[in-house]
Design brief:
Elements lengths: L1 E2 L8 E4 L2 E11 L7 E8 L5 E7 L3 E5 L2 E11 L2 E5 L6 E5 H4 L11 E7 L2 E6 L3 E8 L13 E6 L4 E5 L7 E5 L5 E4 L2
Antiparallel strand pairs: 1-6, 2-3, 2-6, 3-4, 4-5, 7-8, 7-10, 8-9, 10-11, 12-13, 12-15, 13-14, 15-16
Length: about 190
Amino acid sequence: MATANDIRKGMAISYNGDVSIVLDTQHRTPGNLRAFVQATIRSIRTGKSSDVRFSSTEKIEVVALANRKMEFSYKDGEDFVFTDPENFETVNMTAEFLGEARNYLTENTPVVVTFIGEKAVMVEMPSSVVLTVTDAPEGLRGDSASNVQKAITLETGIVVQAPLFIKPGEKIKVDTRTGKYMERAN
């Protein structure tokens, strides 16, 4: 068993009879009080997040996680289907489970899926993806005095700000963590 000081972001722990993913941790030592660990955890069963406080020496049960490299295959109704390229097993995930990551998924996008047992609990996107521009309004002549941006629509339906010179049909690189334009892609 580990102590509360050992828990880190991304770990799975057993808390109140439920398995939870640690989203964030902070070690605090306030003035003349005892040290404690403040953690934000998300329950696997309910999907709800909560802030909990552990004594720094409290025993915590760590649950084993398994990471598998998978690829986004296709959208089946409201579900997103991921395939393991080694054994071709598929896993369905809902749009709510994926959150903002669904805005960057195109066919064969590689992701890392974290499992506890047979249940997918987390999806890690690559730091950037290449997407095709489907709609980009023309830049106005004389608008280039400074770093002027325009709203463009990408193949997944997401709208991002990009420079005036970007045209429909071009491929651009987008940062999946911030949702911002990075550069043109080949």
